[in-house]
Design goal:
This protein has 13 helices and 11 strands. By secondary structure, it is α/β, with parallel strands linked by helices. It has an 8-stranded mixed β-sheet. A 3-stranded mixed β-sheet has the order 1-3-2, covered by helices on one side. The longest helix has about 55 residues. The N terminus and C terminus are likely disordered.
């Protein structure tokens, strides 16, 4: 008997592999138990969410039904309520069956394969999809540059820009330009373009770097141009904006009319058809007088200058630079050219106090007269001059008669003194 019991004791002894296997099985059971508890908790949470969604849908349906019922007519109100209740009951039964089926299927499935399918609304479906996307979306990984790359990045950017610029300068596109000219009235685009000195072979960069030189060349090359400004618009568009000198007056010659700019420069002759409706005509012979007159006019108010029709010399013997100015309001003004900027600003105040068609004389003082008074004054002056001449002639005649009488007396005295003495007889 003793010999038979010994082998049984040997059988009860476990090997190390068996022990490890038992430990592995125990851990596996514990793990399965934990997973089962975890699944139960997840199922419980899902059940609670399903109940909440169900209550929410029921409340929404009740609200919708109450709104629909309030909008309907009184005649079909009872029938619609009855059908709505039947539909609601059917939907409630269907949802309960689907929930029971889904809960049973979730209990049978394991781990991540559990899925619940319910007739959800669009809003619930969108919320569910957003939750799934948030769960399944991989975490964003921030791109962090290395310190060496950060240090080398500015150099790489500058190098790439220079490289692209060099490639652009090699291509023919670096010389293709679109130039437009704006603001011109009297001059033309061809003259402006020729005066600028811009060539088709010039690079876009050269125009940008030498912009002021091209602007100055336009001003110097065209006498009409007062100021020029070149603007650039990417990629190859340039705009030359011109501001021209103002035409102050016109000078009439046999061939036509010559515009006189505000600088005093006389421009080439134009025809009468090119003249504006209203203009100021200057009738002066000397170029120096024209330039001086224009400079004086530029100091006056624009309203006074626009009121002038013509300016000419008055042919005064006392004041050589006396001007006769015909105004558009019918008045005439006499004023010296040297005093135009001082006395002419008083014109508006004087013109408001005198009748139309008056002559405002500013030669010495400032007074107003008329053509009739001028004629009368001229007649009186002529009469006075004639009287003075007659008086002078009478005085000269008297002086001449007196001289003749004095000469006769002197001649008689001389003849008496020249007669010979008679000889005396001695006793």
């Amino acid at each position: 008997m003793s010999n038979k019991q010994k082998p049984s004791k040997k059988e009860d002894v476990l090997t190390e592999w068996q022990k490890k296997n038992l430990e592995f099985l125990k851990r596996k059971q514990e793990k399965e138990k934990l997973e089962a508890e975890k699944q139960e908790r997840e199922l419980q949470k899902k059940k609670e969410e399903i109940e909440k969604n169900k209550l929410k849908r029921e409340q929404e349906k009740e609200q919708d039904q109450s709104q629909n019922l309030s909008d309907k007519k009184e005649e079909g109100l009872a029938e619609e309520i009855f059908t709505a209740e039947e539909k609601f009951a059917d939907e409630e039964l269907g949802e309960k069956q689907e929930i029971s089926q889904e809960v049973s299927s979730e209990e049978e499935k394991s781990e991540d394969e559990v899925k619940i399918t319910l007739p959800l609304k669009k809003d619930d479906i969108q919320v569910k999809k957003s939750k799934e996307n948030s769960q399944t979306a991989p975490p964003r990984v921030l791109f962090v540059l290395d310190d060496k790359v950060k240090k080398a990045l500015p150099i790489l950017i500058i190098f790439s820009i220079l490289l692209l610029f060099s490639i652009f300068m090699i291509t023919p596109y670096s010389q293709k330009k679109q130039i437009s000219i704006t603001g011109i009235t009297y001059t033309n685009e061809e003259v402006i373009y020729a005066a600028s000195g811009i060539k088709d072979s010039d690079y876009i960069l050269s125009i940008l770097t030498n912009k002021k030189q091209f602007e100055q060349a336009v001003v110097k090359g065209d006498p009409w141009v007062k100021n020029a400004n070149i603007s650039y618009q990417f990629p190859n568009k340039f705009t030359i904006t011109i501001s021209e000198y103002r035409i102050v007056a016109y000078q009439q010659i046999e061939a036509g009319f010559q515009p006189v700019l505000e600088t005093g420069r006389i421009m080439p002759t134009i025809t009468k058809a090119q003249m504006p409706e209203e203009f100021l005509l200057i009738e002066l012979l000397q170029q120096e007088d024209v330039s001086l007159l224009v400079k004086e006019l530029m100091t006056l108010d624009r309203e006074i200058v626009d009121n002038m029709v013509s300016i000419q010399l008055s042919n005064s013997s006392t004041t050589k630079d006396l001007l006769a100015i015909q105004m558009r309001d019918g008045n005439k003004v006499r004023v010296p050219l040297s005093q135009l900027d001082v006395k002419m600003p008083l014109y508006n105040d004087i013109a408001n106090q005198v009748p139309g068609g008056s002559i405002i004389d500013m030669e010495v003082g400032v007074y107003a007269t008329s053509e009739e008074l001028e004629i009368l004054s001229d007649q009186i002056k002529a009469e006075n001059i004639a009287k003075k001449e007659e008086e002078k002639a009478a005085e000269k005649a008297k002086e001449k008669a007196n001289e003749e009488a004095a000469n006769k007396e002197t001649n008689q005295d001389e003849s008496v003194s020249e007669e010979p003495n008679e000889p005396t007889i001695s006793e």
